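so my prof wants the structure for this chain in the tokens format not the other one, which i didnt know existed until like an hour ago. anyway here's the sequence
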Amino acid sequence: MDIYLIKLILAHLIGDFFLQPNAWVKDKERRKLKSTRLYLHVMIHVVLIFVVFLSFDVWKTALTIGIIHLIIDALKSIFQTNKNARILFFADQVLHFSSIVVVWHLFYKGSLDISFFNETKTWILIAGALFLTMPTSIVMRVIIAKWLPDNQPDSPQSLQNAGKYIGILERVLIFLFILTNHFEAVGFLLAAKSIFRFGDLKEKHDLKLTEYVLIGTLLSFGIAIVTAMLTQSFIA
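here's what i got, hopefully its the right format
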């Protein structure tokens, strides 16, 4: 990757995540365009570009990114509500990184090599990873639905859809571990999950729930392992 792009990304990461206190974020959300923290935040980004490049010759780059950053953050502060805050956070970062790439291309004639998108291996990897997300969750739900234990009135409430997302994360991790030839990490992941689950299952003394969790875990791991090994054989 080009050194200039790396420096621009580094400046953004430091400015947005290390040098922006939560108090500043709250102030921007509350006072919007009247917030002095908004303009101070942008100034920090401009100064950081001079710092990472160790030169004042990049003033055009710094000024351009500063103006774009101000526009993006200003629009975010204007349109952000409690309901869309999470979506706007990710949209905000996508716009920032996209603007950095555009500025890098304009000022440093940089170009990204995306030829890998034309390779069969890339699409096989994408297909394998995507299969282990929602499709596998649905397949597992259909398979183990008949063994779903009845809800107990005194059972603790879990986070909404937490089990589904935990399963997706563990399968994707297994996929990555196997494709990078770190099979030992799969065993570590299974052991870690067993330790966290052991306490809950032991306290409930529910044999059906224990068996249900065990079936779901082994099925999830099994599908992930088979998918990863098939993917590995296809791209070999």
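also thought this was worth mentioning. The two ends are 26 Å apart (CA to CA).
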